[in-house]
What we know:
The structure holds two protein chains of two kinds.
Chain A: H1 2-15, H2 19-45, H3 55-67, H4 69-72, H5 79-87, H6 90-95, H7 100-128, H8 142-173, H9 179-190, H10 202-210, H11 218-225, H12 230-260
Helix pairs in contact in A: 1-7, 2-3, 2-7, 3-7, 3-11, 7-8, 8-11, 8-12
Chain B: H1 2-16, H2 19-46, H3 55-75, H4 77-80, H5 82-87, H6 91-96, H7 101-108, H8 115-132, H9 138-169, H10 175-187, H11 196-204, H12 209-212, H13 214-219, H14 226-230, H15 235-251
Amino acid sequence: MKAYFTYFKLKFISSLQYRTAAWAGIATQFFFGFVYIMVYIAFYESGGENLPMSLSQVVTYLWLNQALLALVNQFSRDQELFKLIREGGISYELARPKNLYFMWYFKVIGQRLASVLLRFIPLVIVTSLLPYPFHFGGPASFSHFVLFFVSLGFGTLLVTALTVFYPIITLVTMNEKGIVNLVMTLADILSGIVVPIPFFPKFLQVISRVLPFQYISDLPFRLYVGNISVQDGVFGICIQAIWIVIFILLGNILMKRSLKRVVVQGG
Amino acid sequence: MKIYFESLAMHLKGELEYRVNFILSFLSQILVFFTYYFIILALFTKFDHIKGFTLYEVLLCFSIIQFGFSFNEVFARGVDRFDNLIIRGDFDRLLLRPRSIILQVLCSDSDFVKSSRLIQAIIVMIVALVHLHVEWNIWKVITLILMLFSSCVIFFGIFLAAAAYCFFTVQGLEVRNVFTDGGKHMAQYPIGVFQKGFVWFFTFIIPYAFVNYYPLLFFLGRKESILYAFSPLLVILFLIPCVLIFYWGMKRYASVGS
């Protein structure tokens, strides 16, 4: 266990080195947050009936989305793992007496946490000082807040389990674009990063309830703004746990399978 | 001009060498593009209109902006990915040749995978036009053509200004996206729907309003004056500072060496 944790720490510390990139990232995300919110404001000012969320809920949701983007989106993946596979570094990884799956798992989670920690705090501070309608609001209640933290933690474990699949698939396909990109784009839509799930057409809402993606970020964010009741939140967290177990088991099996056919590139 | 088309053909051949990769990337680009208008489709299931613009009117606006953007991604890729030229030091080579620099940059790269976006933008536009019941006349045809044209022009200008930015920073940082992708995202909706300050900014600084708002009003029959139909031509003025900035940056360019 300690060895895996060292991987986590290693990735974490080396990611923290890129501070200028983080500042540029904050500025960009801040701007994009504004752009997205402007669109919703224009829609809300035009009026509408039976809206699934209030404007301030949407705004807070969108800021959370921007602040935690590096943690929850599919595309913030670890380039290094793909490079290992493409250039043959995988042979060193295989020589190590540890479970490769968990080595990768902790690398990915370390990188995600590091890049989000740098961005999250400044963005939250600045946006909570903004006036209405751009204001980043507080949590709906104390219990919602606690559930938000728990489900965000579980969501992180879930998205990590999901993104470890991509290098595993690449072990077989040798190309990280193509299929992997298709899956990532679909996963981003269905996890509510493009549009919050409550704005989906009915049938898509039903579909995404059966799929794991909305449990990555949509569940914690909606818990924070109070769009989901406490009971439903607890229920959602249970589903998260089930998906995490399924994904980690599946990832391990797939990893074993593809390692049997792995081809080491280069020399 | 002939050089440009020859190099385009060359890049296309090059890309088609990796056929499977090309097809897969093409397909995934279709899906990526879908996420762009998925936002619009999803929001219009909950709202009837955005400041008086209906779904198909917004989709028309969206397709015109995406058309111009993708057009530049395919045909002016060299300007879009200008930082590549600078980082690799290849730009020095261009400076030695007795041809226009901008033409050479245009010839340096292209990306035909992105034509999947271009095609999809055209499809969305046709779908929107079919549903809109436009009363066609010669002026409206001209307006539509001018809108598409000005959309290509404005993004070329923005790409050029963003390229000039690489002369100073060497690497094209994320910040650059603020002007390209961020502006594009807003301009997918008729600029007039946003708050005053933004409308002002996107009329007089980056003139998106002349691409997708004033001519759109004429096209949809909300304004009668023919001036609105020809307002996209003003966008050409926007090119002047962009080209000047580019050449000004070039004068101050110091090679990265090697």
